[in-house]
């Protein structure tokens, strides 16, 4: 009361109104809070991730251009460094190796990267998490990336083995490091990062030179550019210089694997900030409109009185605006707290997934200002119509009770129903028809919850489908063995003699730039034998495709981005064949969910490349009992560059996805329940307020509580029922846009919504609807008949 | 008699709802003089409330003009009208129109906060003998008490005119008398020009003058030579 004494009289009314309407206000505020939380969460996470990345790249000098070759002499280094526009340059030895960790049955893949013997690397510097960098002159010292060290519990002093140029060597860890090149560390042939099976380690150049016979040579180039430099121009010049030495096309930073994955993650977060919060703010605006319109209808006389005693339009409009703003602030407070809390959780999730030396969930005050601005804005927009109505209300009219509501007869068909349905149902239907806009918006609000749930759950279906297609229909091998260098066909026979091998099929990968007019993409053509059984190419409808004896099979994504269709001629620049340019027809468009896939018949690819029969690796299916022996052999085989195990991929893929999905689904269910509750509770409260007299009259006439409240419940039931199909359609649309958002050169998610997804979404919403309705029904049960009937409407 | 506070000249009001035209007032002329208490008498729908609303600046006539101290209200814009109500007019309504979420004291303070030269809310409440009910909410008071709060709220700004629309309409005779006594006291002690609408003929004898309305016209205007006290009224 003391606090109240400092308030103006209208503000005291405001405070008491807030107290009186708290349940409805809280219901709306929670919906707003969802909008604020998702906004703060996604924009906050987006910003912190982007800034963390920028800071890491900047401080640790992440390169702008990357290129590789077979073996280039050091004398080339100066010429590359002197290309106009190049600021700093780095010439390294980078080799993939097979790793053997004691206690782990299967072999792991690794990449060995050279460090300068003296001084820090000019580019792509390392952040030392613990220990130190290896010293030059010591043969067996390495620094290893943190994700691998963590997966095995390794620290400085621990050791593992690697096959380095045919020799198995014990490597001792001196330091655990993080590199801007491997923030997203994904092994060759893997679909998701498998930290335990992929190691990147760093050794002094002098040590690697000896091991790989790279004295005075390099096979990897990283460049940073001066501002204003033409990236493409620099890349072209690098390509020309490296061409005689087995150069592969240079890549810009945006195509660097780790960076590209980060980019897609950032895009996704940003999309979330622009898609989800507006839904909540829209629903909140509608709820504000509903509540305020009702409040104003109830307070017509008070508004008239205020005008009569000399309050102007503005103070009265401001009084009601303050109520709305207060509502928005409650939502803002809850949402900001939840957003900040969830944001930290999200940051933790990211730190598990990406390897940053630091990750700060930055509390940016402007974010809250933006959230506050849009929330208050949305709330006031929702209130605008009601507030304008107050302003326009002439005082004398305000003082008279509103004219009785005019109902319409139900249209033909519904009218016929009238003889079948009970009078209470007719009442409910008339209420709906009297306020079709409100009924429509309520339905839309509820359907948003259904849609959110469909969106949350569709991914499970889609990913199951993707796993099924990818791992059981398309890629059926147990292991993929990639060779170090291209091998002659005799390597296939060697593979057939590996322990336990049931079937072995060769493949050839030919890096190329695929062009069609102005469109181009760097791809890898995969040559497969025509009777390929372990790897099956699937058409758009997921039927097996027999490889034609010539011509390219493009995945949908490649066909889309290059605007190519079957029958078109595509231009190929064969990077590993001295950039020879050839033409090849497009035979078909096929399905592939991962990467930019282009397939060709193996022999046709040999002919296209023109360097004879060269194989990149083999895919094998293996007798499960023989796996340990196979692993042992591979760990000792020098020719093997890397091995990826499908069983591992399947498991890891599922685990990664399931972690994310469980979290996301929980969040979405909470959001959907809040929307449902907010919409239904408020609708029911308002209907109750409007029809209290009718309902009380029914009770006086002898209707039971159940019968009287059925008017209200039938109305809600109709709205909830109508919302289901609309929600399914919206959910399909949301899911489609999610799929579009994910669609990238890295992967594409199929849009598969299982019928059970729709059913589950509807069940949750209906359950939330029933609970909300029952809360209001209790109020009908407690109607004070005498008082309600005495109240002037 | 003193100077004219209100003059209505040919005031006509037509309401249109859909296709129906309702003639609430058909050319009414009326003068209210300084310090007088007038009773506007007539059956429901005879136009009394409409005239009162127009005089109080709550509504505008379709035709004709109302002058307040010689100035035409018709020329006032929305904000002038708001000022006019705020500074010069006090209203009392049949259904009290108290703000349910405010206490008696606060309902009065609602007006004193924005008025130019108000009395204290407790003073106004004392004038209607409610100084012991100041902290009560409307729901905790009887109808008569609520109406007296409404009167206190109307007079707290020291208005020049008090316009009362059926102030006793919702009250029983005993409570109504208490309310009328409050109005009479304000009229006498503060000299506030008072117009009371009623369809209760018993009340007319407390007024200086009585105007009888019928079908949107003033059909009779009588000056009371012999006024009675509110306590002598009953219905």
Written overview of the protein:
Chain A is of the alpha+beta class and 793 residues long. In chain A, β13 and β14 form a beta hairpin. The longest helix of chain A is centred in the C-terminal third of the chain and has 55 residues, at 646-700. Chain A is elongated and about 100 Å long. Chain A starts with a helix and ends with a helix. Chain B is an alpha/beta fold. Chain B has a single domain (36-58, 87-232), classed as Rossmann fold. The longest helix of chain B has 18 residues, at 173-190. At the A-B interface, α2, α9 and α12 of A face α2, β6 and α3 of B.
Write down the overall mean pLDDT of chain A: 84
Structural class of chain B: alpha/beta
What's the CATH topology label of chain B? Rossmann fold
Q: Could you tell me the strand content of chain B as a percent range?
A: 25-35%
**Shape estimate of chain A:** elongated
Strand percent estimate of chain A: 15-25%
Q: Could you report the average pLDDT of chain B, rounded to the nearest whole number?
A: 89
Low-confidence blocks of residues of chain A: none
| CA distance, first residue to last residue of chain A | 31 Å
Superfamily (CATH H level) name of chain B: P-loop containing nucleotide triphosphate hydrolases
Give the proportion of residues in helices of chain A: 40-55%
| Tally of helical runs of chain B | 6
- Specify the structural class of chain A: alpha+beta
Largest interface: A-B, 27 and 32 residues
